[in-house]
Amino acid sequence: MANLIEVTDAADERLADYVKLRETTLRRQLENEGGLFIAEGAKIIRRAVDAGYQPRSFLLAERWLPGLADLLDATEAPVYVVSEEVAELVTGFHVHRGALASMHRHIRWSLEDLLDAQRLVVCEDIVDHTNVGAIVRSAAALGWDGVLLAPRAADPLYRRAIKTSMGAVLEMPWARLVDWRHDLPRLQAAGFEVVAMALSPDAVSLPDYAADLRARPRPIALLLGTEGDGLSSRWLGQADVVVRIDMARGIDSLNVAAAAAVACYALGATTSISG
User: Fold this and answer.
1) In this structure, how many other beta carbons lie within 10 angstroms of the beta carbon of residue 213?
2) 256-267 helix and 206-215 helix, angle to the nearest 10 degrees
3) What is the CATH number of domain 111-267?
4) Residue 140 in contact with residue 168, Cβ under 8 Å?
5) 255 vs 21, 132, 135, 165, CA distance in Å?
């Protein structure tokens, strides 16, 4: 049976995991140090549990209890039942989906687990959570095998990243690069062609590179940099080839998440990794 606990006081210390979810600094401190992340919405909560993440607690409006009854009955985690007004006071925003869960983090993949892939997206210093979430969503939807993140890239398990990805970050293989200075050569040694996305004058156009890839299939690792400065000179210098998306109508570039979607579609995928 579900461990239902009615809570009427927004200051109740048992709700500490959910306090001020919009305050990024506070959330990073709690989630990184406490090994937690927040799943928002019944669908995302189910995907997290199905992916093997263990719930620490739930924060639910009463109307969401029937739809999650089977999941709640299968766990011993406390289920804090609150009014939507109390939920808003605790979290700092209107919880329009009415359901939150505090989940225990665990590392599911490493770089080594992804070296047998055919298609990887590699994010350098993309610090916007929504961009990281959108990139993972596109890579997953278009059949790519996994995503690698440089140490300073945004956290895929941050609430906004999970939401933007539609839960794809909970299932898509992804891993942190430990040594961003030397991990690209490791990919090359494993047989990947490292492909940098950049608007360099000598870059190969995306359609031309896609045609060559179809003619000579090989594993690729697609490098994406932050929107402002793009890829670092070090990563550009380590790439095997630089590819560009040609622009029109005076537009100088695409948002990095949009560019990722275009490139992932154009460059295709062949295999998938489960874990």
Assistant:
1) 17
2) 30
3) 3.40.1280.10
4) yes
5) 26, 12, 11, 16
* Residues 6+ positions from 237 with CB-CB distance below 8 Å: none
The CA distance from 87 to 58, in Å, is 12
Residue 185's nearest CA partner among 240, 144, 226, 224 is 240
Name the residue among 107, 76, 81, 67 with its Cα closest to residue 15. 81
* Beta carbons within 8 Å of 198's beta carbon, 6+ residues apart: 225, 230, 231, 236, 242, 243, 244
What is the DSSP-derived secondary structure letter of residue 96? T
Every domain of the chain and the residues it spans: 3-104, 111-267
Tens of pLDDT, residue by residue over 102-144, are 999 888 999 999 999 999 999 998 999 999 999 999 999 999 9
* DSSP code string of 158-178: SHHHHHHTTTGGGTS-EEE-S
Per the listing, tokens 């001020």 go with 20
Pairing mode of beta strands 119-123, 220-224? parallel
Closest CA to 15 of 114, 83, 73, 109: 83
Structure tokens that stand for 118 in this block: 């055919």
Query: 59-69 in b/e burial notation, b at 16+ Cβ within 10 A?
Result: bbbeebbeebe
Q: What 3-state class would DSSP assign to 91?
A: helix
> Quick check: 264 pLDDT over 60?
yes
Q: What pLDDT, in 10s, does the model give residues 89-102? A: 888 766 656 689 99
CATH superfamily assigned to domain 3-104:
Ribosomal protein L30/S12 (3.30.1330.30)
Cβ proximity of 128 and 59 under 8 Å: no
The secondary structure of residue 192, as a DSSP letter, is: P
